[in-house]
Amino acid sequence: MKLKIPDLKLKIGPDFWKTILLASATAIIISTFFIAMPLSEKLFPGIRYDLKLKSNTWKKTFVLDAGASYEDAKETATIIGSRLNKYQVEEYEIEVYTKRETFDESMNQQIPSDVIDLGADSDKTDSEETNGVRESVEPQDNSDNSVENQVAPESEKSQDNSDNSDSQTDNELNDATDIDDATDTDIDDAADTGNALDTADADNTPDTDDPSEIPSEQDYTTTNIIEVTVQTTKDEYMIQMLIMSTNKIKIMTVKDGVTFDDPNNPFAKNLEENYQESGFDNSSFRYIAVKQLTNSQGDPYYFTIFKPIPGPTAKEFRDFMASTIGQEIGVSIDGFVKPYANYMGEQDGILLPLTTDPEEARFYRLLFNSESFPTSIQVKDIVEKEPLVMKIDYVKTTLAFIVGAVTVALMIYVFTKHQNQKLTKAFSFLLSTGFTTALAISFFKITRNEIDLFNLAIGGLLSSILSVGMVFTKIGVTDVKKSSKQGSRLLFVLTSIGIIVLTFRYLGNGYLHQFSRSTSLVVIGTYIISNLSWIYFTNLKTYFKK
Amino acid sequence: MTLQFIFIAGVPFVAILAAYLYFYRNLRNSLSIAAGYLAMTITYSATYLLTNYQFNLNFEGIQETGVIFSSVIFIIATAILESAKKPQLSSKMIIQFFALIFVSSFSTALFLPSEMILIILSSFLASLIGTAVQFLMRSLRKE
Questions:
Q1: Any chain A CB within 8 A of the CB of B82?
Q2: pLDDT (tens digit per residue) in A438-464
Q3: Would an 8 Å CB–CB cutoff place A258 in contact with chain B?
Q4: What is the CB neighbour count within 10 angstroms for residue A498?
Q5: Does B97 touch chain A if contact means CB atoms closer than 8 Å?
Q6: Is A3 at the interface with chain B, CB within 8 A?
Q7: pTM here?
Q8: Chain center to CA of A77
Q9: Could you give the ipTM of this predicted complex?
Q10: Contact: B115, A390; criterion CB under 8 Å
Q11: How many Cβ atoms are within 10 Å of A96's Cβ, its own excluded?
């Protein structure tokens, strides 16, 4: 049986595709506006259309003891600044100053280095995962020592706990109270503190009236302090690493007679004391690459590749690898050793597994390729501060933005001389500025990306200014077609803004960097949408006139 | 601080001049642009310092973004000045352009924190003065 397919030839008129395109464009515009409107999540209860704002801003001051050399402290501060800048930390301030203190005071304020484990271990044994956000490595954990917690600053607690098990000594420490005060004025109290550390017997407290107990000039030591204050939304653990990691990388071999078989000491293979230096350190590697490769299970994984500088160093490295074939060697990063089983023998580099997280990989790439500190540092204190965050009312600002845009559109209508362009210009401006902003907000809502309201507000304003320029002064709309003079006017505007934005984006820091990134998108978006709006409205007008 | 300021103020200056010379090849007008930009930078710096001392602002990093803001306005204003055949026409256009920007910016800024309003105000004022200086220089040269 033969089926007869009916002839379904549609009569497509000249306006058919135009109608389809105009209807689709109108639908896209309306839906984008609906999604972008504040509280749209209440209109669509089934879908999450709420804006995810950056709210985890934190501020801390890290007080670091950089030793006796002021030059080294300055250089260390520069390296820290460079790292924070490259990591695009929004706000930071670094201060270096010299402080004189007695030996006892300096001892009293030190934290044992083992509480600040800065090893680049991806397992991060000192951190905890809480709701996907890693908590930072705190320099103490003395919840059981309630007496100390009442008085001593955070940084002192761990020292007290590890060094002074005697409770009487702890009570003596409490009497020491504020160390800064002791440094400046109350030397007697500081002397008491020192004795409290030396002996557990409270009766041995020296006579405060005895002038011989006042520290002489020789008793003072000079320390250089680096104070780093950071305000950011970035991961706290990573920022701490950038500030505290000395980034000293060494390739090491296991000491003779050392075995890692003891089940009571599972971390023996991570301790630098069990290894000896091979002579290869940061200076042996030109660039430490962090690349995504495939692991033994076939999954993508980020690896660190330590590849020596070509030439004599590379040859020495190959010889070293050939001589240690079948042995376990280690890569020490800030004193934490990652073991590496050398089964390959003569090879050009070492490949260490790092992480699965791309953001973490980016961070380690930056850290490993930053300079090493010229001196060792000790964390004296970490002070939590109240971050200064601009509070912007999203709903009210959006409404004000809409009112402003409508007013400007009316003004454009009044200012435009040519009668036939009045409506097109006013409507194109409204659509251009509104749709650019709405598109950006909808994008952030749908992708659930975090956004800074400050950036959004400034971006909206900038889009509005550019729309005025593009539509009202006709810088960007239909210019290129008309004449080369008008075309160069548009190119002048776009090129100059482009140079500014790109330079700040790649050389700027903090907010300037962030803002320039959003500006580049705003400029491109506004230019494209201004032209599309003009075309859309011109076609809409002619369509309805027919 | 000085180096940072030179960088922040210098980048837009070089960008505008380079782009202008490339597309228009008019050395005389580029002097007017340079004078206008200088006036703009001085005004912005003055308001920057004034707001910092008078209102004890804590958002120094954010204030630097105002340079981009004022530069964009200045660039569009320069393009308008370049497009008009007569100074009278361009002056009318410039006044309308700044009136539109004023309404657009400050209606939105109404519910923003006072620090942001100050940044927008400083940028607006600086670009207005910069454009006025540029316009005067161009007019004087034509006369």
A1: yes
A2: 998 888 888 877 777 877 888 888 888
A3: no
A4: 17
A5: yes
A6: no
A7: 0.67
A8: 18
A9: 0.88
A10: yes
A11: 18
Per residue in A178-197, pLDDT tens? Answer: 333 333 333 333 333 333 33
Cα separation, B71 vs B43, in Å, equals 13
Residue A168 has pLDDT above 80, yes or no: no
Backbone phi and psi for residue A164, each to the nearest 5 degrees, phi listed first: -125, 95
Q: Tell me how many helices (H) and strands (E) chain B has.
A: 6, 0
Contacts of A243 (CB under 8 A, 6+ apart): A62, A64, A80, A83, A84, A228, A230
Confidence of residue A280 (pLDDT cuts 50, 70, 90): confident
Place of tokens 């000293």: A248
Cα separation, A257 vs A396, in Å, equals 72
Does residue A375 register a pLDDT over 50? Answer: yes
Q: How far, CA to CA in Å, does A47 sit from each of A25, A26, A35, A211, A220?
A: 23, 22, 10, 76, 66
Say whether A499 and B14 touch across the interface (CB within 8 A). Answer: yes
Question: What one-character-per-residue DSSP string does B44-101 give?
Answer: HHHHHHHHHHHH--S-HHHHTTHHHHHHHHHHHHHHHHHH-SSHHHHHHHHHHHHHHH
Decide if B19 and A468 are in contact by the 8 Å CB cutoff. no
Cβ atoms within 10 Å of A194's Cβ, excluding its own: 22
Assigned token pair, A146 = 């309630």
